[in-house]
């Protein structure tokens, strides 16, 4: 009986640890470096983390699950572009996020864009691979949609 309990605790701990290992970049330049190094596209998550109900729901139902963590670690560089109302951000991050919101024509939250990026003549060029938002059905449904966009 003790072996079963210990095994269950280890499984629970490893699943919880896996979900916590996700790194969400907030600086697009840093994310581009990681993307170039790993040869993975970026997942740009435009969110209102402390006020947008659908954003919070997407986080809870998909982005904070072990299934998503495993998929993300294998497939993308995560970038959170947040537009909070209560928490503070540096002026640099606010400016960056606002410029990216305009560049991608974001009009509602949550919006997720999959992109490849490179710098040409000092300017960032994005190659759009597709976009999505909240998808009902939990991680399986959302990941199916994401894989279609990434053509996996």
| Low-confidence segments | 15-19
Structural class, judged by helices and strands?
alpha/beta
Radius of gyration: 17 Å
Q: What is the total tally of β strands?
A: 5
What overall geometry do the principal axes of the alpha carbons give?
globular
Largest sheet: 5 strands, mixed
Give me the side-by-side strand order of the main sheet: 1-3-2-4-5
Separation, N- and C-terminal Cα atoms: 42 Å
- The helix content, as a percent range, equals 40-55%
Portion in strands:
15-25%
**H/I helix tally:** 6
> What does the average pLDDT come to?
90
Could you spell the SSE succession in H and E letters? HEHEHHEHEEH
Characterization of the model:
The chain is α/β, with parallel strands linked by helices. Helix content is 51%, strand content 22%. The protein has helices spanning 2-20, 28-38, 53-63, 66-75, 91-104, 138-149, and strands at 24-25, 42-47, 77-82, 111-120, 123-132. The chain has a 5-stranded mixed beta sheet, with helices on both faces. α1 crosses α4 and α3 packs across α6. The radius of gyration is 17 Å and the shape is globular. The N and C termini lie far apart (42 Å).
Task: Please supply descriptive tags for the structure shown above.
globular; 5 strands; 22% strand; single chain; alpha/beta; 152 residues
In brief, what are we looking at here?
Helix content is 51%, strand content 22%.
